[in-house]
């Protein structure tokens, strides 16, 4: 049985709480024996709880403190992500010198059917971005600017011809510019508006991750808390975009406040109506 969205969000926040408490043993209790992890993404994957124990012990020794933002889930039944502002001790000039380092990153966990974390990915890179990194970091910001302006052609210019679009993660990927153009056109028709947060880069030289708040006002008012994970090529074009959000990350500003199953049913009903209208529009074009 897959772990539900709310449970996955609790797990990722509990990860942060136990790290802040310096509880390495408690942290490891959240993880499967054969866990795989990459921190930072691009730094090389490692595996197993003993490797992870050493990794967490180093973080605790450095007085790592995480302040998590708003977590999101995904509709694939396994992922949870959260933006994190962290501080930790690092070396400073002079013998024995220590300075406080601030770091912004996005933590992604994959939770197995038994409720244990099977994979950890931490997206962060060098503090000082070079020219290529600046282009990559700008990609989600420029996407938001153009889609907010209703600039369909401008949005499409940001993608490679073989772009793969998965929104939300857990739905079938949409491949190629022609198919994605219909999706973007529908989003613009729904009066989409995106407010991106601070993008973070991975050390792999291609990935950029950005939290955002997305609203639509047609056919109904909806608000989405989203974390987007994009791969950007050497020309600054996006070749893959995955939008992580779940049913629990959607709110209905014009509806009575609901919780639990009632909320999920209300959101699902509106999402189904959106799909119906989108398919009707595509069929008539």
TrEMBL record:
SnoaL-like domain: residues covered: 14-119, 142-224
Protein name: Nuclear transport factor 2 family protein
Gene3D superfamilies tied to this protein: 3.10.450.50
Domain of life according to the entry: Bacteria
Pfam families in the cross-refs: SnoaL_2
Matches recorded under InterPro entries: NTF2-like_dom_sf, SnoaL-like
């Amino acid at each position: 049985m897959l772990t539900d969205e709310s449970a996955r969000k609790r797990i990722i926040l509990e990860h942060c709480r136990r790290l802040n408490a310096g509880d390495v043993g408690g942290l490891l209790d959240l993880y499967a024996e054969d866990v795989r992890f990459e921190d930072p993404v691009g730094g090389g994957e490692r595996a197993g709880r003993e490797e992870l124990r050493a990794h967490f012990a180093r973080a605790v020794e450095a007085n790592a403190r995480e302040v998590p933002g708003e977590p999101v889930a995904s509709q694939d039944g396994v992922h949870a992500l959260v933006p994190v502002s962290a501080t930790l001790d690092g070396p400073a000039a002079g013998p024995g010198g220590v300075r406080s380092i601030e770091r912004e990153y996005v933590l992604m966990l994959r939770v197995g059917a038994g409720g244990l974390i099977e994979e950890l990915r931490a997206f962060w890179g060098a503090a000082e971005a070079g020219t290529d990194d600046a282009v990559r970091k700008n990609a989600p910001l420029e996407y938001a600017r153009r889609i907010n302006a209703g600039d369909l052609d401008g949005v499409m210019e940001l993608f490679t011809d073989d772009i793969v679009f998965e929104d939300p993660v857990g739905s079938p990927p949409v491949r190629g510019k022609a198919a994605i153009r219909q999706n973007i056109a529908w989003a613009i028709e729904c009066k989409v508006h995106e407010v991106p947060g601070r993008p973070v880069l991975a050390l792999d030289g291609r990935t950029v991750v950005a939290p955002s708040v997305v609203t639509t006002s047609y056919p109904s008012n909806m608000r989405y808390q989203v974390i987007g994970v994009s791969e950007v090529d050497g020309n600054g074009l996006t070749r893959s975009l995955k939008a992580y959000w779940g049913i629990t990350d959607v709110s209905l500003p014009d509806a009575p406040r609901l919780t639990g199953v009632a909320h999920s049913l209300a959101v699902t009903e509106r999402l189904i109506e959106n799909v119906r209208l989108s398919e009707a529009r595509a069929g008539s074009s």
